[in-house]
Specification:
The chain is mainly β and 136 residues long. It has one domain: Intracellular proteinase inhibitor BsuPI (Immunoglobulin-like, Sandwich). Helix content is 0%, strand content 46%. It contains no helices and ten strands. The strands form three sheets. The protein has a four-stranded antiparallel β-sheet, with no helix packed on it. It has a four-stranded antiparallel β-sheet with strand order 6-5-9-10, with no helix packed on it. The chain starts with 15 loop residues before the first strand and ends with a strand. The relative contact order is 0.33.
Length: 136
């Protein structure tokens, strides 16, 4: 049995909020259509919408992960695959109304329709995932 997710399984999910600390996850594109060979840029944002500072705890040096899928080929890349991260707990403080922003880019994608699913590896919001769909 093929355990891979089918294309579209991750697409059309909205912005999520954590019930624990009202941290909001958001992945945005500067647009939805790109030319072949053009740099594709994303922002992945962890936004604190509470009235006080929020502390996120990570069990390693990895703060986020993503999976990039092509409609016909399947999984193209997972950020964490083949990487090693320091194995130490660390905290990230995000002030009231502030955000931690991660930039993700792909320089040379071939024509087709893609989906990108991004998530934080913070223990408090690990189950929250955000997806975007785009075309080259």
């Amino acid at each position: 049995m093929d355990s891979r997710k089918k294309f579209g399984d991750f697409v059309n999910q909205s912005t999520y909020k954590s019930n624990v600390n009202k941290t909001k996850l958001k992945a945005t594109l500067n647009r939805r259509d790109y030319q072949e060979g053009e740099l594709v840029c994303f922002e992945f944002k962890l936004e604190n919408q509470t009235e006080k500072e929020v502390t996120l705890t990570f069990s390693s040096g990895q703060e986020y992960d993503y999976v990039l899928q092509h409609e016909e080929i399947g999984v193209i890349e997972q950020f964490s695959e083949g990487k090693f991260f320091i194995q130490a707990f660390k905290n990230l403080n995000i002030g009231k109304g502030e955000a931690k922003i991660y930039s993700i880019s792909f320089p040379s994608l071939k024509k087709g329709t893609y989906s990108l699913m991004v998530w934080s590896t913070a223990l408090e919001v690990k189950v929250l995932k955000q997806s975007v769909k785009f075309t080259i």
